[in-house]
Amino acid sequence: MAFDFSAVSTPFRMQPGLRALPPGAVQLTPIRPGERAFAEKLAVLTQHADQALVAQAGFDAAPALAVLTAQAEREHPQAWREAQARLEGHPAIEALPAPWRASARLCLAFAEDFAIIDGATACIPWLAVCLPSDWAPQDKVGRHFAEVHAPVADNRLLLTASEHLARLVTGTQRWERFVWTITPEPRLDMHPARVGQPRWHDDSEAFFRTERQTFIPLPEARQAVFTIHVESRPLAEAITSAAEAAALHAALASMSDAVLAYRGLTSARDRLLAWLAERAA
What we know:
Oligomer: single chain
Low-confidence stretches: none
Strand order of the largest sheet: 1-5-6-7-3-4-2
Helix content: 25-40%
């Protein structure tokens, strides 16, 4: 998994949690047609492209896409060349408006989804997001960081830091952060218009859903490409040690009622805590 388990901390707080990336750190993850991320992304771009590829009128994404493409060529030259050849003339891409085809190729070549952050306005003017986690890209485009995070439970730290974060990630340093939750839904694509609210039942299998998020800066334009790598694995496979089970137990036990409700964990909390306590022992 791309997820760093040390990001599971106690007490649980909704916070930026940014870490500086060392020079040369990899930010993109190649995918191939046989992988689940590719299949789900392709389904979205074929059937719901207008819900995944959104931009403010008149916004020019070309400079950010050039930087993202250069990152792909630098990190994974062979995989990127192979993906371009494989996707050349692909019907799902050719069916898109011409300005979106390069973005779709990047989405299908890598596990990550992408957005552009504007540091001058702290807004998100462009998104190419096929695998959102219970949010709709079309509802976020053009909105301020604070507005984007307004629905998040216990969001005071995120809202207070929003202006500073936008300036920080559009500077010269590269950053990453990790987020996680537990859900009964295994799918990577969790757009609310395409997937109903996940519901827990007595026999529901639990899945550990994680995101590695990174920022590729364009300091001369005061922008950054925001990358989102979503993974979902059965909890029983994702937890590989007693220490991980104990850390996740402590974090889940420390969640506020508001966060539990926001993440759909209220009804499952006690069962999950019991399972984690057993694994931790």
